[in-house]
Amino acid sequence: MRTTYRMRSGRFLGILAAGLIILGVAAVLWALGLPSVAISVFVSLGGLITLAGLWILARPPKVARLRDSDIEVRGVRTPWTDITEVGRVETTHGEAIVLRTKQPDHPILLPLSWLAPKQVPSLETTLRDKLNAAHGYTIWDGTVPEETGSAE
Known about the structure:
The strands form two sheets. The protein has a four-stranded antiparallel sheet with strand order 1-2-3-4, covered by helices on one side. A three-stranded antiparallel sheet has the order 5-6-7, covered by helices on one side. Helix content is about 40%, strand content about 25%. The protein has three helices and seven strands; from the N terminus they run βααββββββα. Strand 5 (about 85-90) and strand 6 (about 95-100) form a beta hairpin. The chain is an alpha+beta fold.
């Protein structure tokens, strides 16, 4: 099973806005009666940037991909067995999820500001579940196991 987490699409509204501003400049140039070559350059450029902005809003970049065997964060693939701990840290860009690996100098950071707020709890739960499964841990539900009748 694979789960994909994408960046918040609101981070890319500036691209769409830039394209619309350039289209607005083309309209002003047309109203002023400037040559059609200048207008067509602004319309073409504004149209392409607007389309790119719409594309990124519809399909934001992938931040993390969780598979059964490994995790891929920003293009770096790491097996679950190489990850020792998942937690939160405070960085200069705000709070982030840190994946500590067996190599102490190579933690993997995932800034929470990149994700939609509703994705964060499910990501943390999924990370812990996958990490527990990779290391063979189970969550104790507080019950006592049944007697097997064997001598200890």
